[in-house]
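Next up, sample data.

:::
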Amino acid sequence: MPLTSQERSADPVEALRRSLAGMLAARIAGPGGPAVRQRIVRARSGWFGPDRPIRRVHGDAAMFVGGLRALLLQSLHPLAIAAVTEHSGYRADPWGRLQRTGAFLAITTYGSAEDAQRAVDAVKAVHTRVHGAAPDGRTYRADDPHLLAWVHVAEVDSFLRCHQRYGAAPLTDQEADGYVADAAVVAEALGVIDPPVTTAQLAERIEAYRPELAGTPQARAAARFLLLNPPLPLPARAPYGVIAAAAVGSLPRWTRWPLRLPYLPISEATAVPVAGHALMRATRWVLASHEPLDTTTATREG
């Protein structure tokens, strides 16, 4: 029988869960989190119906793993990591960037159509101001459709693969295709031309980018920061270490050497999945103390 609100407030375990949920929400969603939440709660008609796969994927705790994997994979494109390094402020304000990206994903996935379009327009406005030159002399623009497409496919592949490995309810093959198609709606709105709409097309698109990818000093510096020097308090280091190990373990083997990441097949097949699943279950338990609402974190700059 469910506990009443009075019983929950008197239960020390429930009190701990609510305290942890509050701290996690404050860190991930930031001061603007409650406002975003209320906009989503009031939303009537958005881009995706309640039965769409994108809502399941983006509402699962596995997004913590997927988001980190996406950042590592995206960094392998020299122009993408140059733009991130020079314009995103991920070192100076990593939590602010995380909060903005989480808000973007939450609004476009669960918000009203009007709010979703406004969020997309805001990101596109930022992209028009992001341009420069990579260390190798090549120029980049954040609104370049080809570069946008790489960021998109790396992100979608990461979210989907980590959901299939660590999500509470992995998608069927048909649902996985549906997720890729759902994500393509947002990608097209952002300016991606002909985004993949099936998992097969997604795999083909990533393979097509491989000749352009490289482990640059900027990419390796970003990997070191994300994996070894995140701005976290001491108690959060161990859980984050599990997320980092799960993210690295889910990357393709061809990404490891360019980023100087270890490949430990025995650990990645045994200890890492066990720890990853345990942490994701614990995270879902903590987040369940909030009112039922799909929220998310990830890697799109807004």
Observations:
- The mean pLDDT is 86.
- Residues 49-287 form one domain.
- DSSP finds 16 helices and two strands in the chain.
- The radius of gyration is 19 Å.
